[in-house]
Amino acid sequence: MTVVVRNVAPYGEGSVDLTFADGRVAGVHAPGTAPAGDQEVDASGLIALPGLVDLHTHLREPGREDAETIESGTAAAALGGFTAVHAMANTQPVADTAGVVEQVWRRGQEAGYCDVHPVGAVTVGLAGERLAELGAMADSAARVRVFSDDGICVSDAVLMRRALEYVKAFDGVIAQHAQEPRLTEGAQMNEGELSGVLGLHGWPPVAEEAIIARDVLLAEHVGSRVHICHLSTRGSVDIIRWAKGRGIDVTAEVTPHHLILTEQLATTYDPRYKVNPPLRTADDVEAVREGLADGTIDIVATDHAPHAREDKDCEWAAGAFGMLGLQTALSVVVETMVDTGRLTWRDVADRMSIAPARIGRVHDQGRPLEAGEPANVVLIDPSARWHVDPAALASRSRNTPFEGREMSGRVVATFLHGRPTVLNGALA
Ligand SMILES: [Zn+2]
Fold it and tell me: Where does the chain hold its CATH 2.30.40.10 domain(s)?
C-alpha cells in the first residue's frame, strides 16, 4: 500500500508531499507533484514530525488489566502521536526475566498501534536485593536496552554500581527513579511551606537531588551511562547541567505535568493531582522549562500512569501516585515550550522522538523525514484547540489532571511503519 501525504510541512518549515511505501518514506516531492497513491491524505496546514517516542510508559499489563492493557495503552499512545513506547517493568509479574519482556513485546506487536519496547527491571521483583537477568533480557527477542526499577529507587549504591557496570556490555542504560527512600517515608506532596499549611507529609527536593548527585558520580566512576527519570526540581537541573559540563554520560527526562502544574493543586485534596515525584513550585516549573530549552534535560517522557477508579476516587492520603499522559503530552509541550517561543518544532522532534530513540537505542524510530527512512510519522495541527474529556480518552483509566482544560495543538494522524494508526484524530 502506498500513502501520499499532500502539502505537509516537515518540522513546520515548508510544504512538500511525502509518500510512504513498504513501511518507508518512498519520496519527498514538491507540493502537489507526488504521483497518486492508494491512500491520499490532505495535510494542508499540518506539520510532520518523526513519530513520538516515549521512554517512560506504564501499560499495567500483565497484572492490572483493569487499569490499562497493552492494547488500550498503545491506542492512547498512537492517538497522542507516538510510534514507540517503553513499557515500565513494575507489572505483576515484574518484567525481570526474558520470558516476561518477550511477552510484553509480542503483545505490543499483536495490538499493532505502536512499537512496545519493554523496560527490564534492574533487581529481581523490584526488591532492590539482587540484580535481575539483565543480559538475558538484552539478548531476548525484546532486545531490552533500558533497565529501571521505576516506582522504586535503586537506593543501594553497590547494586546501582553493579547494574551500571553490567549494562555496558550491551550498551544498555539504567533509568533511575531518584527518590531517597528514608527521606520520603510517608511523603504525600512537595515539602515546603504549603505542605505544612495543608498538614501533608513532605517529599523534599533533596531526596531527588541527592540520588541524582550520587548516580552521576557513579556513572562517571564506572564509565557507564545513566538516565534520570522525571526530574522535577531546580536543584536537579543544576546537578545535571554540572554533570554534563564535566563530560558525564547522563541523560534526563521531564514529564509534561512537571512542565505545567504546581504544588498549589494539592490545596484541592483531589488525588488526581497526586504524583511521584510530586508537583513542585512555580520556580521549579520555570527551571525545568529552562533545562528542556537549553538541552540540559534531553527529553519529555510521559510517565503515563493509569490507575483504576477505586485507586483515585478516595481521600488524598489513600490515593495512588500517577497521572495519564500519552494523549495530552504533545499539547502540553506546545503550550509551554512552542507557543512561548522556547522550542522550535525541530526541537520538539529532538526532545520527543530523536533523543528518546537514541537513549533507548531504538534504531528505527526518531529518524529524519527523508526517502529510505522508516515511515514513522505524526501529523500535527499546531493551531487546533480541544478540550480534554476523560471519558473520550482511549486509556482504560480516567485519571487525567487536565479534565476540561483547553489544550493547544492536536495530533491529526499517526503512521507506524507506513501504515496509518490514526487518521482525522481517531484510530484508523
Ligand atoms: Zn518513577
Answer: 2-47+373-395+407-427
Reading the block at residue 240, the C-alpha cell is 545535571
Helices (H), 168-312: 193-198, 205-222, 234-245, 256-260, 282-294, 309-312
CA distances from 214 to 171, 176, 208, 234 (A): 21, 11, 10, 17
Which CATH homologous superfamily contains domain 2-47+373-395+407-427? Answer: Urease, subunit C, domain 1 (2.30.40.10)
- Give 277 Cα–ligand 1 centroid separation in angstroms: 7
DSSP string of 280-334, one letter each residue: --HHHHHHHHHHHHHTSS-EE---B----HHHHSS-GGGSPS-B--TTTHHHHHI
Q: What is the pLDDT of residues 42-99, one digit of tens each?
A: 999 999 999 999 999 999 999 999 999 999 999 999 999 999 999 999 999 999 999 9
CA of residue 18 to ligand 1 center, whole Å: 38
Nearest residue to 421 via CA among 173, 210, 116: 116
Catalytic site residues? 303
Tens of pLDDT, residue by residue over 375-400, are 999 999 999 999 999 999 999 999 99
Give CA–CA dist 55/271, Å, rounded: 25
Q: Please state the three-class secondary structure of 348-366 as a single string.
A: HHHHHHHHHHHHCCCCCCC
Query: What distance in Å separates the CA atoms of residue 101 and residue 221, rounded to the nearest whole number?
Result: 30
**CATH assignment, 51-359:** 3.20.20.140
Give the pairing type, strands 419-423 and 146-147: unpaired
Q: Where in the chain is the domain with CATH 3.20.20.140?
A: 51-359
**How many A from CA of 201 to the centre of ligand 1?**
19
Question: What backbone torsions phi and psi does residue 116 show, to the nearest 5 degrees?
Answer: -110, 120
